[in-house]
């Protein structure tokens, strides 16, 4: 196969994933800087996507180098064998382009590497309430006051099981301000004391993952904490935080 043909194949195969990457991480980023707006960054998706691009772009470049610079030489009279090897390399390059294109689909969000790693960590968490009757009681106490969800969704959260097709827990924003995030963190950290490390510090990554995976805003959008709400949670105690802590203790101590 000639060099021009190989180059055309690579250009066509990688045009879409390359343009999508440049548009997202170059053009939109520049516009955000110019307009002084916040760049839309979701580390659950963008970090693994960039990781995929780094790894597979290197591999694709290596395949292109081998093909274009004719590292694969005719093996004596076995020209057909060389052609087969070239075809395998080209198919591999096309497959790589499809993988990179896949990172822009909704399915990639569902199979995100970082989320999978976090889910493995989160499954090690144990809720302080293990009795099913107590779980029902807590769900009843929280529902319509702090949360809005079905019992199966709440049970999956308590047991740290995947929601699957179950709807997320809607966190009700009574106070209409960001301080309500601290109440949510208070709920989760009281139910899962394992979120605190041995040195007493909070496992922020796992906390963010748990809240992202099981809770959503009233409009259905995922809750992404970030650094600031967690810092404020650590810094000060508020009356709403104390109320939800007392509610949990009341359910635990009730006979």
Architecture overview:
This protein is 65% helix and 3% strand. It has 255 residues and is mainly alpha-helical. The protein has a three-stranded mixed β-sheet with strand order 1-2-3. It is elongated, with a radius of gyration of 25 Å. The protein starts with a helix and ends with a helix.
SSE map:
Layout (H helix, E strand, L loop, with lengths): L2 H33 L7 H26 L10 H24 L3 H5 L2 H10 L9 H11 L4 E2 L2 H9 L9 E3 L8 H12 L12 H11 E2 L10 H9 L3 H15 L2
What number of domains?
2
Tally the helices: what do you get?
Answer: 11
Largest sheet: 3 strands, mixed
Q: Secondary-structure element sequence? A: HHHHHHEHEHHEHH
Report the average pLDDT across residues.
84
CA-CA gap between termini: 78 Å
Features:
single chain; membrane; transmembrane helix; 255 residues; 11 helices; mainly alpha; 2 domains
Brief account:
With 255 residues, the protein is mainly α. Helix content is 65%, strand content 3%.
């Amino acid at each position: 196969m000639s060099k021009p043909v190989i180059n055309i194949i690579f250009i066509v195969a990688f045009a879409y994933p390359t343009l999508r990457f440049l548009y997202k991480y170059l053009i939109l980023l520049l516009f955000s800087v110019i307009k002084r707006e916040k760049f839309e960054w979701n580390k659950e998706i963008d970090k693994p996507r960039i990781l995929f691009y780094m790894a597979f772009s290197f591999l694709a470049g290596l395949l292109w180098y081998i093909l274009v610079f004719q590292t694969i030489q005719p093996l004596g009279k076995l020209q057909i064998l060389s052609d087969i090897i070239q075809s395998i390399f080209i198919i591999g390059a096309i497959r790589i382009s499809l993988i990179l294109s896949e990172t822009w689909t909704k399915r990639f969000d569902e199979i995100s590497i970082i989320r999978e790693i976090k889910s493995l960590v989160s499954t090690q968490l144990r809720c302080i309430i293990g009795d099913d009757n107590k779980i029902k009681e807590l769900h009843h106490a929280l529902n319509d006051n702090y949360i809005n969800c079905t019992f199966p969704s709440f049970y999956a959260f308590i047991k740290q099981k995947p929601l699957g097709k179950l709807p997320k827990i809607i966190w009700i924003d009574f106070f209409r301000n960001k301080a309500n995030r601290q109440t949510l963190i208070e709920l989760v950290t009281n139910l899962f004391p394992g979120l605190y490390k041995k040195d007493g510090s909070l496992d922020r990554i796992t906390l963010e993952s748990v809240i992202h995976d099981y809770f959503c805003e009233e409009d259905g959008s995922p809750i992404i904490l970030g650094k600031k709400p967690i810092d404020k949670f650590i810094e000060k105690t508020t009356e709403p935080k104390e109320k939800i802590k007392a509610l949990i203790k009341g359910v635990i101590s009730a006979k």
